Amino acid sequence: MDVTYKKTKDANKVVKTTTETIYLYPLKKELKEIEEELKKLEKEPDEILAANDEKLFRIDKLLERKEEINKILE
User: Fold this and answer.
1) Which residues pair with 17 in a beta bridge?
2) Is the separation of the CB atoms in 28 and 73 below 8 Å?
3) What is the pLDDT of residues 19-48, one digit of tens each?
4) Is the pTM of this model over 0.70?
5) Least packed by Cβ within 10 Å: which of 4, 7, 41, 43?
6) Residues contacting 36, CB < 8 A, separation 6+
7) Region 63-70: what's the mean pLDDT?
8) Phi, then psi, of 67 in degrees rounded to 5
9) Structural domain includes residue 15
């Protein structure tokens, strides 16, 4: 992560900015794994999923992460 300092119009202030290097291959790999896991979970009957809060929570987390990765890859 690179850190840079930029002067602002106000001479008494400096803004610290950071840039983070993101490698696309691991993100694409993770996205593929998430999609595979979601497909497995979709095959389970709704009654089982409804009774299992842990699986529903996992699905929500996977969907959130998938959305984050898609934003980065755009």
Assistant:
1) 4
2) yes
3) 777 778 888 899 999 999 988 888 877 777
4) no
5) 43
6) none
7) 88
8) -65, -40
9) no
